[in-house]
Amino acid sequence: MANKMKKEAKVLGCGLLADGIYELWLETPFAKDVVPGQFVGVYPVNKATLLPRPISVCEVDTERSAIRLVYRVVGSGTAEFSLYRPDDYIMILGPLGNGFPLDKAKGKNVVVMGGGIGVPPLLETAKKLSGEKVSAVMGYRNSETFLSDEFKKYSDMYIATEDGSVGTKGNVIDAIKANDIKCDVIFACGPMPMLRAIKAYAQEIGAKAYLSLEERMACGVGACLGCITKTKEIDDHSRVHNARICTDGPVFDADDLEM
Amino acid sequence: MNTKVEIAGVEFKNPVMTASGTFGSGMEYSEFVDLNKLGAVVTKGVANVPWPGNPTPRVAEVYGGMLNAIGLQNPGIDVFIDRDLSFLSGYDTKVIVNVCGKTVEDYLEVVERLGDQKVDMLEINVSCPNVKEGAIAFGQNKDALYDITKRIKEKAKQPIIMKLSPNVTSIAEMAKAAEAAGADAISLINTITGMKIDIHKRQFALANKTGGMSGPAIKPVAVRMVYEAAHAVNIPIIGMGGIANAEDAIEFIMAGATAIAVGAMNFHDPYTTEKVVEGIEEYMKKYNVQDINEIRGIV
Q: Do B216 and A50 touch (CB under 8 A)?
């Protein structure tokens, strides 16, 4: 795995994708090393803030040595990021985490599933899976279905919305069932209730699910033990059934998790 | 120019250490920092058996710092010796092991197990605010602190550092109790107990409700306490609390610390420790300080 670094990245592009959802294209030397499902720590310049904000990589452009971050503004840190403009510089730490195990999808019917701000990391995942039979099932609150058109380039795209304004009314599982989507392997990212439902669905149909988790974290590199998740087996680090989301994850085999 | 400092007969190449719990056993940060350049690596607290720690969320950011309630998750002394001490033995830096426990017997078991290991000093954690048993229970009462210090000192093969809590009425009294019981050194401050409430979710930001506050916002409190402790005892002090750069480190040294430790700022910038080492040398050149020990307690 590539060495991690903390380094200034040049803003190449920015934009508003939906209500409260923004994007940043950042030029960074580690772009070529990023595996889909990995994330970076992004630092606000505000001196009152200490910790990097973990944000997943949505896309990689190796020609420009750039990564694309798509994030929701949830606090003062992400609000600051939304003000960055091309040619500004922003400090980032990365690449962090393990990423999705793309090799598990070889020759299989693979479904990438995202919910809300869990949608972005699946875009690069779908792109890197080209050659396989890929379906994308994305869940949104309403008709602000950010990134959905881009998934169409790499996959058969299905949408679920909570208010029923676009696609299937309901959640991603409802959309899978409604569209009778074939599914051997699932790569998913989203809120915990969605991930729990996906784990249960995968068990029900005998599919494998790999889930990307989120948790409050401090260091991002496996030292502080802030971002743990309960695991079935004893973990390598502390031998207490606590895997570190930042380094052992964020992607886990659903069968290994106690959720 | 001399940056070497000595504590209880152990010589450190410079006064820069890592604060326990913020640096693991150095493995994760060795990707960013040359551990050989540090005065010492102070490891995350280790108990006699593995501890699972607290539920999540375990960390929260606050203005100018953070709260943590990890709850001393650790792999226990067996794995620690096999894996972490083996790893550190490959580096030319001093090793200080932070020891935690629920009972005095727990502490003694770890201390005895470490007796024949390649460990330079022991730091006794009697100040973690995030566990229900042990730790801070020994660190908020001067008689309890005296007793545990004395019992550990009797068994320890290496010099012991008592890590003190700021959550006390008089840090000077606690420092004196540790010294009287035979502590070779003291380190301070551990985190300050704090709380954050998520007003949108109407719940505590941490699953543990309270957590230990660290980061630059606590630095003035830490400098004051190091100063008070330095005037109360004659044993060396390792100062810490919000150190972000060499200027902060020098403040602690001028307040009376022999060595200093970088804590939460490792999370902000994984290169902080090495930058502090370099910055101290630059300061010494700029102000023509021949020996770092010259400026200790100078205010």
A: yes
Q: What is the DSSP string of A174-240?
A: HHHHHTT---SEEEEES-HHHHHHHHHHHHHHT-EEEEE-----SSSSSSS--SEEEBSSPPTTTSS
Nearest CA in chain A to B244: A50
Mutate to test the interface with B, among A40, A238, A241 (most CBs of B within 10 A): A238
CA-to-CA distance for B214 and B226, rounded, in angstroms? 15
Q: Is B128 assigned a catalytic role? A: yes
Instruction: Look up residue B108 and give its two tokens.
Output: 């003694």
User: In the predicted model, is pLDDT for residue B130 greater than 90?
Assistant: no
**For strand B210-214 and strand B192-195, is the pairing parallel, antiparallel, or unpaired?**
antiparallel
Contact B66 A228 (CB under 8 A): no
Which chain B residues touch A237 with a CB distance below 8 Å? Answer: 75
pLDDT digits (tens, 9 = 90+) for A37-63: 999 999 999 989 999 999 999 999 999
B29 and A223: CB-CB below 8 Å? yes
Are the Cβ atoms of A229 and B56 closer than 8 angstroms? yes
Read off the pLDDT band of A1 (50, 70, 90).
low
Q: Which of A165, A174, A124 is nearest to A144 (CA)?
A: A165
- Higher pLDDT among residues A131 and B84, named by residue: B84
Dist. CA B96–CA B8, nearest whole Å: 13
How large is the ipTM? Answer: 0.93
Mean of per-residue pLDDT scores for chain B: 96
> H-type helices in B52-141, by residue range?
76-79, 86-88, 104-114
Residue B84: C-alpha distances to residues A245, B43, B76, B81 (Å) = 21, 9, 11, 6
- Report the DSSP beta bridge partners of residue B94: B40
Note the CATH architecture for domain B5-295. Answer: Alpha-Beta Barrel (3.20)
Q: Number of H helices and number of E strands within chain B? A: 9, 16
> Least CB-CB distance to A240: which of B52, B216, B270?
B52
A259 touches chain B (CB under 8 A): no
Give the whole-angstrom CA distance, residue A36 versus residue A34.
7
pLDDT, tens digit, for every residue of A116-156? Answer: 999 999 999 999 998 888 999 999 999 999 999 999 999 99
Structure tokens at A156: 């058969």
Alpha carbon distance B128, B61 (integer Å): 18
